[in-house]
Amino acid sequence: MIQRIQTVFLALLAIAMIVMLFLPLWSKTDATTGETVVLSAWNIKSYFLNEQGEPDTAGTIPQRGAIAIGMLAIAAAVVAVYEIFQFKSRLNQMKLGLLNTLVLAALLGVSFYYAAYVGAELVQAPENGAYEAGFFMPVLGLLLNALANRFIKRDEDLVRSVDRLR
């Protein structure tokens, strides 16, 4: 049924993935020039910051696409929403939960790859950069997906135990 707790977890997962599309994932600042590279779900851009720390002008580094992050986040949100409406078949929900786990793990891996390798090469600075709030959304998604899968399995076990008693 749609009013179960796993529906709340799956809805929160979808919301977290949509929010990830609009938050920065990673940033790194070159101390000598003041140029900051920011990774979002769609691209890697560079900016020069003003005195308040806000982006002022475009940087010298050309923009690079990171569309794989955005597409994986959308895929995870779509699978979660579709999984909500598969409440009549808990086995299908469990399969979709496994698929979503794989998509979220791939999303986390691709985000880390773009932050640690692609973005880090663009700015010469001794530190690794700062992981922003959007970077942790796939981790939150994995946690919410695991909780949803646990409660789906609990419902399936309950139905099977009741069927044995008949």
Give a nutshell description of this structure.
The protein has 166 residues and is α+β, with helices and mostly antiparallel strands. Helix content is 58%, strand content 14%.
Features:
166 residues, Butyryl-CoA Dehydrogenase, subunit A, domain 3, 6-stranded antiparallel sheet, 58% helix
Give a structural overview.
With 166 residues, the protein is of the alpha+beta class. It has one domain: Butyryl-CoA Dehydrogenase, subunit A, domain 3 (Up-down Bundle). The protein has four helices and six strands; from the N terminus they run αβββββααβα. Strands 1, 2, 3, 4, 5 and 6 form a six-stranded antiparallel beta sheet that branches. Strand 2 and strand 3 form a beta hairpin. It starts with a helix and ends with a helix. The mean pLDDT is 88. Keywords: Membrane, Transmembrane, Transmembrane helix. It comes from Pontibacter oryzae. InterPro entries: DUF4293. This is DUF4293 family protein.
